[in-house]
Design a protein that fits this description.
The chain is of the alpha+beta class. It has a domain of 131 residues: Histidine kinase-like ATPase, C-terminal domain (Heat Shock Protein 90), CATH 3.30.565.10. It is built from 6 helices and 9 strands; from the N terminus they run ββααααββαββαβββ. The protein has a 5-stranded mixed sheet with strand order 3-5-6-8-7, covered by helices on one side. Strands 1-2 form a two-stranded antiparallel sheet. Strands 4-9 form a two-stranded antiparallel sheet. A hairpin with a 2-residue loop joins strand 5 and strand 6.
Length: 257
């Protein structure tokens, strides 16, 4: 089918209809891409606000109440008439124990914002500590293997690698219902390969169709991988778990001297 339009000198030129359709395709693709970016940005903002709400709640309900209780314990130790030295020592021991509890809660809260072990010890020890926390606090067995990472240079901050694995473990615990998980990190040539696998209930393979917190978490993971210049493969089978493979480009930092 052809369409005609007048041009100079009264000549009529014919062009195929499909050419005009092709010309519109880039515009359509840009619109679709723009819509996807906007949706992802909204998801990231939503995730940030939800995280801020969670932290605010923990500070108020947990840390704030603990500090209030500590204040009452200290006031009680001064106002009460403690007759003997032993009673006084017990009162002080109770205060010290409660103060240690508050310090640990503060450490956990701060670690959730920015793990100090990442800054002080490096990526590998930080990841090992993260996995150990999930082993201790969750009903999940994690098999973890990781080579040296301290000599690697990423295209973006290495905190993104940490957060991707943290989000994956969180999704496994909250949504997968898994009992076992595997995290294997290995350098292959100029890439870092990260395998994350679980034996949970599985999910739909198309991450854009997963609704709720799990889909939001996967979208955030995907964005972090993009920042690192990497790629990922997501596959899941109902009743047989989920498998994520990340391939992240790295450079090797050469020591001088």
């Amino acid at each position: 089918m052809y369409s005609s339009f007048p041009v100079q000198k009264g000549i009529t030129q014919f062009i195929p209809m499909h050419i005009s359709e092709i010309r519109r395709c880039p515009i359509t693709r840009r619109q679709e891409t723009g819509g996807a970016v906007k949706a992802l940005s909204q998801k990231i903002i939503q995730a940030q606000e939800e995280e801020r709400t969670r932290i605010s709640r923990e500070i108020h309900d947990d840390l704030g109440q603990s500090l209030a209780t500590l204040k009452m314990l200290i006031q009680a130790s001064f106002t009460a008439s403690i007759k003997n030295q032993r009673s006084r020592e017990k009162s002080f021991e109770k205060i010290i124990q409660y103060l240690n509890t508050i310090i640990e809660k503060t450490r956990v809260l701060a670690s959730g914002l920015r793990p100090s072990s990442l800054e002080v010890l490096g990526l590998r020890p930080a990841l090992k500590g993260l996995v150990n926390d999930f082993r201790c606090n969750k009903d999940l067995r994690v098999r973890f293997s990781c080579g040296r990472l301290d000599h690697l240079v990423f295209k973006a901050e290495e905190i993104n690698v940490y957060r991707v694995i943290q989000e994956a473990l969180t999704n496994i615990v909250r949504h997968a219902g898994a009992r076992h998980a595997v995290i294997a990190i290995k350098k292959i040539k100029n890439h870092l390969r990260i395998l994350i696998r679980d034996d949970g209930q599985g999910a739909k393979c198309n991450t854009r169709r997963i609704k709720g917190p799990q889909g939001l978490g996967l979208s955030t993971m995907e964005e972090r991988v993009r920042l690192l210049g990497g790629k990922w493969e997501f596959s899941s089978v109902k009743g047989k778990g989920t498998r994520i493979v990340l391939t992240i480009p790295v450079d090797v930092h050469k020591k001088h001297g």
